[in-house]
Write a structure and sequence with these properties.
The protein is α/β, with parallel strands linked by helices. It has 2 domains: 9-103, 2-Layer Sandwich (Endonuclease, Chain A); 107-280, Endonuclease Chain A (Endonuclease, Chain A, 2-Layer Sandwich), CATH 3.30.870.10. The protein is built from 7 helices and 15 strands. It has helices at residues 9-21, 79-92, 111-123, 141-152, 216-220, 232-245, 274-286; strands spanning 34-35, 39-46, 49-57, 69-70, 73-76, 105-107, 130-135, 156-161, 178-182, 188-189, 192-196, 206-210, 222-229, 252-255, 261-264. The strands form 3 sheets. Strands 1, 6, 7, 8, 9, 11, 12, 13, 14 and 15 form a 10-stranded mixed sheet that branches. β7 (130-135), α4 and β8 (156-161) form a beta-alpha-beta unit. α3 runs parallel beside α4 (141-152) and α6 (232-245) runs antiparallel to α7. The longest helix is centred in the N-terminal third of the chain and has 14 residues, at 79-92. The chain is globular. The mean pLDDT is 94.
Length: 288
């Protein structure tokens, strides 16, 4: 249970006490670290034995924000993911010490170094490299530096940031291969999705979703989790998010080399509403 949830601390304390009174073992996280990961683990006895069901997402388990925020989540019974989530919960509850994750990317232990390695690997492909990231904020100096380095290596970088962005795109010799835009709409853009064109096995695309922004607090002072999304159908859905948000005919704000945001797209907002366009795509997929 997260006791540092902004504006919701009293509610979480109330729920924690109610759960404890009902006999639930409640853990309040690690001292000095805010638990920001969005993970659920359910162990169920199926006909063929015990199976672990895991949900890993970008959004809070909160009935109010669930109707106001744009988020994505991943529900799986993959054995490797299940083993990693079990390890994570054992670590958070004090039942293990040495933790080796096979699938998950977890902060503050490994996530920063793993992201740096992925960016460096993409740089090795030069102009054929591409990084696409949808984040709430980008403020971490090392991540900004690595994206500048990627741009200088020829990698095309597309960033969709809702909030703070300390990176300056479009500077000749520094960041001319980086584009930054922000999407506004009915829902608060909240999902964190990252795509490395050559980050997967055999240099195939790697898709990651999870709770972490590229900020110092997320990478160094919080428990965060990113999970690879490997199924082709799920990857296609994430690609559709990027295709919609990076389209030239949607309403968005773009950051220029002077650090100034400019509105682009149709003057009439409904004609270029990215969120509504994606919702219609999802609806049409459900009726196929």
């Amino acid at each position: 249970v997260e006791l540092k949830a902004r504006f919701d601390e009293a509610t979480n304390v109330g729920w924690a006490k109610a759960l404890e009174r009902s006999g639930v073992h409640v853990v309040y996280g690690l001292v000095g670290l805010k638990t920001h990961a969005k993970c659920t683990l359910v162990v169920r006895e199926d006909d063929d034995g015990l199976r672990r069901y895991c949900h890993i997402g970008t959004g809070n388990y909160n009935s109010k924000t669930a109707g106001l925020y744009e988020d994505v989540g991943f529900l799986t019974c993959d054995e490797q993911v299940g083993a990693d989530v079990t390890q994570l919960f054992n670590h958070l509850t004090g039942y293990s010490r040495a933790v080796q994750f096979q699938s998950l990317l977890v902060a503050p232990r490994d996530l920063r170094d793993q992201l740096v390695d992925l960016i460096e690997h993409e740089m090795s492909f030069g102009a054929n490299g591409r990084i696409t990231a949808k984040l709430n904020s980008l403020t971490d100096p090392e991540m900004v530096y690595m994206l500048y380095a990627a741009s200088q290596a020829g990698v095309q970088v597309d960033l969709i940031t809702r909030g703070i962005c300390c990176l300056v795109p479009g500077v000749p010799g520094v960041s001319e291969n980086i584009r930054v835009r922000s999407i506004l709409g009915r829902y608060l853009e909240h999902s964190r999705i990252v795509r490395f064109e050559h980050g997967g096995d055999d240099d195939t695309p790697l898709f990651l979703i999870g709770s972490a922004d590229w900020m110092g607090r997320n990478l160094d002072r919080r428990v965060e989790v990113l999970v690879p999304v490997t199924h082709p159908k799920h990857q296609a859905w994430l690609d559709q998010v990027f295709d919609t948000d990076l389209a030239d005919d949607i309403v968005r704000h773009e950051l220029d080399a002077e650090g100034v945001w400019h509105r682009h797209g149709p003057a009439h907002f409904p004609d270029g509403d990215a969120q509504q366009r994606f919702a219609e795509w999802v609806r049409d997929r459900q009726t196929l």
